[in-house]
Amino acid sequence: MQTITPCLWFDTEGEEAARFYTSVFPNSRILDVSYYGSAGPRDEGTVMTVAFELDGQEFVALNGGPGYTFSEAISFQVPCESQEDVDRYWEALTEGGGEEGPCGWLKDRFGVSWQIFPRRLTELIADADRERSQRVVAAMLRMRKIDLAELERAAAAEGVSA
User: Fold this and answer.
1) What's the pLDDT tens digit per position in 34-78?
2) CA 136 → CA 74, 84, 153, distances in Å?
3) What is the Cα–Cα distance from 153 to 140, expressed in whole angstroms?
């Protein structure tokens, strides 16, 4: 049972964001939508919160107003099984105004930060061979979207320094 639920503060686009995210990630769904009533503070009948689930992880989107925005200080990691998964998530999350960042980071069109990377990256970085690990890190630092084949080439490059 999940005991901690991330709450994402939006101005007015919480429902749009929740519907977008549930379309991107498998095994995802909208759980509940609540609305502001006569007590406010926003217009009665407008969406207040959207509870949703992304592949088993629950989230809440709150339409709290323009007072707060997202920053890279918080991001969601999406470890992928293949380059195809990396490519698919990268394309979907940057679509419609998202921004590519360094080292597998991106911001979606709502300003939420994501880290899209192949699981293999963490294995390569944790390699007991420090030189091999550092070659992988150096290659990753030159990338925007992570390229697994390039990381594997860097790992295999014997005698090449980072």
Assistant:
1) 999 999 899 999 999 999 999 999 999 999 999 999 999 999 999
2) 24, 20, 9
3) 12
Q: Are 58 and 64 in contact (CB under 8 A)?
A: no
What pTM was estimated for this model as a whole? 0.92
Instruction: Based on the fold, state whether residues 123 and 150 are members of the same structural domain.
Output: yes
Asked whether residue 79 falls in the same domain as residue 132, the answer is yes
Q: In what order do the strands lie in the sheet with 57-63?
A: 7-10, 57-63, 47-54, 29-35
Identify the domain containing residue 98 by its residue range.
70-162
Instruction: Give yes or no: residues 116 and 136 share one domain.
Output: yes
With contact defined as beta carbons under 8 Å apart, do 139 and 109 qualify?
Answer: no
CA distance 4 to 153: 39
Query: Among 66, 81, 108, which residue terminates a domain?
Result: 66
94 lies in the same domain as 135: yes
For residue 34, count other CB atoms closer than 10 A to its CB: 12
